[in-house]
Amino acid sequence: MFSENQSKRYSRHFILPEIGIFGQEKLLKSSVLVIGAGGLGSIVIMYLAAAGVGKIGIADCDEVEPSNFNRQIIHSPLSLGVNKALSASEWVTKFNPDVSVDTIKERLTAQNIASTIANYDFIVDCTDNFETKFLINDACVAAQKPFCHGGAAGLDGQVMTVAKGSACLRCVLGSAPLDAPTCAELGVLGSVVGVIGSIQATEAIEYLVGKGEPLLNKLLVFDARTMKFQTIKLKPDPNCSACGR
Amino acid sequence: MVKVNGEMFDAAGKSVKELIENKGYSLSRIAVELNGEILLKSEYDTTVLADGDSVEVVSFVGGG
After folding, report:
1. CATH of the domain at B17
2. Phi, psi (5° rounding) for residue A31?
3. Has residue B15 been placed in a domain?
4. Looking at residues A236-241, what average pLDDT do you find?
5. Cβ distance of B62 and A180 shorter than 8 Å
6. To 5 degrees, how large is the angle CA A220–CA A224–CA A228?
7. Do A234 and B38 touch (CB under 8 A)?
């Protein structure tokens, strides 16, 4: 089943009781769509590729800029001006030949998001604005597609995972906040984005292999000033306009 | 007294909405936990705080 190279590459997974040989086979047959190849996306894409997720979709319509490099570590200065989905895809292809990559350079909109997410087992929201985060939330809830929401700015971040029946982003926030400061306004520390992205990648991997307790009905909040993680228990809102019935 | 993110405030008798507005939080970006249970946004106005309550307010950030 595994080639000699694969047996070596994934040997540290084989001995993990939570993954093992069967878990690795599952990962190689799995597909994940990462929306946003910025700070969170860099980390999520790199760890999913390292874990041997068989197909990774990378969606981003922006180009690599010099101000990205404090956190968007999948891109290199050689890729300045290149589309981020393409730049990230090139990294994956060089890093792990087991992974096939879909490069999605178009902006995801209400018109094309449903057909895009349909091709994947799990979605990771690594976007940098609430408008798109809610677009992803609503499309995934409607299609009953599991996804992991993440956000990071300044020295703060949060993660929650949503699957059929669990509280969604709209249950918690109602609608997209219009006053949320961006990383350009607040600043952002790359390593903090890395913490949040690593948790999102772990959520995806554990979901795909069916191990661990995902952050369903839970919001994990990280404050890097105090190094405090807080878990807030969520509940679905029966009147939620996305998932309520 | 009501404990808000670990600090004591004289907020008994106030609604959750009044408390978080007084403390300057942006209503649209927060989740509020009262005594370990999440409050829905629709409950902020109708939930009145009592002595000994514990409130946690966490803010969402939108960057990525």
Report:
1. 3.10.20.30
2. -135, 140
3. yes
4. 96
5. yes
6. 50
7. yes
> Which band of pLDDT confidence, cut at 50, 70 and 90, is reported for residue A3?
very high
In a domain, B64, yes or no: no
Under an 8 A CB cutoff, do A221 and B58 touch? yes
Mean pLDDT score, B17-44: 94
- Neighboring chain B residues of A155 at a CB cutoff of 8 Å: none
Strands A228-233 and B7-9: unpaired
Give the pLDDT band of residue A180 (cuts 50, 70, 90). Answer: confident
> Quick check: B31 contacting A, CB < 8 Å?
yes
Q: Does A67 touch chain B (CB under 8 A)?
A: no
Provide the number of CB pairs (under 8 Å) joining chain A to chain B.
95
Answering whether pTM is above 0.95, one says: yes
Q: pLDDT tens digit string along A115-164?
A: 999 999 999 999 999 999 999 999 999 999 999 999 999 999 999 999 99
Q: What is the pLDDT of residues A114-124, one digit of tens each?
A: 999 999 999 99
CATH homologous superfamily for A4-233?
NAD(P)-binding Rossmann-like Domain (3.40.50.720)
Distance from CA of A20 to the nearest CA of B (A): 32
The residues of A annotated as belonging to the active site are 183
Residue B50 lies in a domain: yes
Range of the domain at B33: 2-59
Q: For chain B, what is the domain count?
A: 1
